[in-house]
Amino acid sequence: xxxxxxxxxxxxxxxxxxxxxxxxxxxxxxxxxxxxxxxxxxxxxxxxxxxxxxxxxxxxxxxxxxxxxxxxxxxxxxxxxxxxxxxxxxxxxxxxxxxxxxxxxxxxxxxxxxxxxxxxxxxxxxxxxxxxxxxxxxxxxxxxxxxxxxxxxxxxxxxxxxxxxxxxxxxxxxxxxxxxxxxxxxxxxxxxxxxxxxxxxxxxxxxxxxxxxxxxxxxxxxxxxxxxxxxxxxxxxxxxxxxxxxxxxxxxxxxxxxxxxxxxxxxxxxxxxxxxxxxxxxxxxxxxxxxxxxxxxxxxxxxxxxxxxxxxxxxxxxxxxxxxxxxxxxxxxxxxxxxxxxxxxxxxxxxxxxxxxxxxxxxxxxxxxxxxxxxxxxxxxxxxxxx
Amino acid sequence: xxxxxxxxxxxxxxxxxxxxxxxxxxxxxxxxxxxxxxxxxxxxxxxxxxxxxxxxxxxxxxxxxxxxxxxxxxxxxxxxxxxxxxxxxxxxxxxxxxxxxxxxxxxxxxxxxxxxxxxxxxxxxxxxxxxxxxxxxxxxxxxxxxxxxxxxxxxxxxxxxxxxxxxxxxxxxxxxxxxxxxxxxxxxxxxxxxxxxxxxxxxxxxxxxxxxxxxxxxxxxxxxxxxxxxxxxxxxxxxxxxxxxxxxxxxxxxxxxxxxxxxxxxxxxxxxxxxxxxxxxxxxxxxxxxxxxxxxxxxxxxxxxxxxxxxxxxxxxxxxxxxxxxxxxxxxxxxxxxxxxxxxxxxxxxxxxxxxxxxxxxxxxxxxxxxxxxxxxxxxxxxxxxxxxxxxxxxxxxxxxxxxxxxxxxxxxxxxxxxxxxxx
Lengths: 387, 424
Known about the structure:
The structure holds 2 protein chains of 2 kinds. By secondary structure, chain A is mainly alpha-helical. Chain A has helices at about 20-40, 50-65, 70-75, 85, 95-125, 130-140, 145-180, 195-220, 225-255, 260-270, 275-300, 305-335, 355-375; strands at about 5, 340-345.
């Protein structure tokens, strides 16, 4: 039985939005963040990021495929998922996400298709049997590839990437909007919410790319592209500063306004969220990576191996920081009673339908899918391949 | 060259096709009545309304099970319909009303009794979300308190679901009593200080405030170490100011704790074998519901002290009108502002007899118009009289215009036909 502190309304005892709703913005954030990083190369022409551009794009798709899985698990009856398309309710903020998600998925799939078309045709020509048929389906039966087609493909990829940036921002900004627009929730209701979500999405996108880039190269025992790696670390440093400062400024703003909601939010921050928000999210996983990335960016004399390990460690810490931020927003907001006089408790359970084991599974599956995607859409050059 | 753009045209054509197909599929699959009155299928309402009613009304059950129904109606579970514990009962009723020809077997018609532990705990499991005054238990604590040794013991081994608290009188006619609060109804834990020690704390009455003598007597008796007043005198809150209090002098209520049963600790609390305990002596009538109190009064409290310290006299109900009429502030010292309405809105005051509407109310209304406003809205006279009542002081001068507009018939509602001739 949950034991609330002080006074809560009966319908607040059960935390309705569980850890699944924590994972939903977390995974969606990585989708949007990874896509924006890929667009740095495709749209803004940052050549240094070329080695990870395709990887970022395919990662975005892998996470995108699982962005709605936590929601389906939370709501139950996944067979009804497509009813949102058959019986659309344009007044529903949540169904709005469904349409943005579909549009964004179309852009990502198209961009990947145009990016990999030449390679898919090459594989089609070299393969046999059923694999050949699969590749034939993937290239839609068209095997024309020459300098002109490649030029057209590059052009379309650039246009799609340019379109994709605002859509990615809308995708994740929309998730922030879903929370920020709930005016009855003291901890969520702020127009800053969607801006904070966009910046934290870019941070998580960059962090997951750095983490995986180093990890994959470590597995393959190959050095990373140092220029690309360090540039990503610098971007990560910059975006994490903006994201964390925005989060803290929002709290500062509420505290300085000192309206009635601060009375209870102050207790929330100093009580239920003291460990997960103050100690872990801010002190350990925000200040920590900030100091590490400041050192790797500003101190030139650090040996490359140590520097790369530091960056990798910081990226991992920032991945945890963003997860903690999602937890503190989603769960934290529900721990406060609308009465402004009490708090409830929440623990997801270990083996529950929406427990920690299932959560870990949902986070891990996109990484496994990414491994499968690597077979069809190879994102790093392999030994023996022509550059 | 077009051949170099062929794949681009192809992929966007597929996209266009999918979009068009999506729109067509949506159009085809969308139910006809969807969107008629919102984002749902309107026909679903009609389909649900056409479904046969399965749940049987408690009155239907009473046709065959009258004695159980009467017992159930008398006690605290009277608000719980039969179907809540016994299931829908449609097959059962159909069979016993002679529908056996429809292929219903006696076995199918048998009604399960859901009086298992889990069934009772569905309502009576202690939950913070339940109203604090609702009877609810933590099973282990409850068994520990009653020294129940077998954890598999079912509720019905002590409690009768049709008569859960063995009331002496009908629950609906039990005494109305001002609100009785327990600290834990507002506080999550029992506070260290009493309400009187806390500055600006709302007034909370304890039993001893009105029943000092009987409470003092009870506190000197062995029962006071283990139970409090509300353990026997169960209080059921009906609204924010009043509720009903039950006496529970029934022997069966005492036996809830003191009857010897195989699943209970033999020694404690003291137990008896029922009905052997009273033996065959002819002095004691076993049908006397208060049989326990007759001998063991000294272990509880002296029964005759019950109203000794009540701040209101025995005839208070009929007498309070005069004091309340003088100043409601007197009542407000102890009662909340809407306490009066809680009685007066439910039952008519004793003064409102059959002649009240016809003759008597105008005397009382003219004497103290504000007394009507305890229950009635200020303009409620207008509903019958079609003008403000009682007549304003200048009515003698102003009534001419009113009669011109509304006619003489208006006067005849209250006055005799020749009343006008009294002056004119």
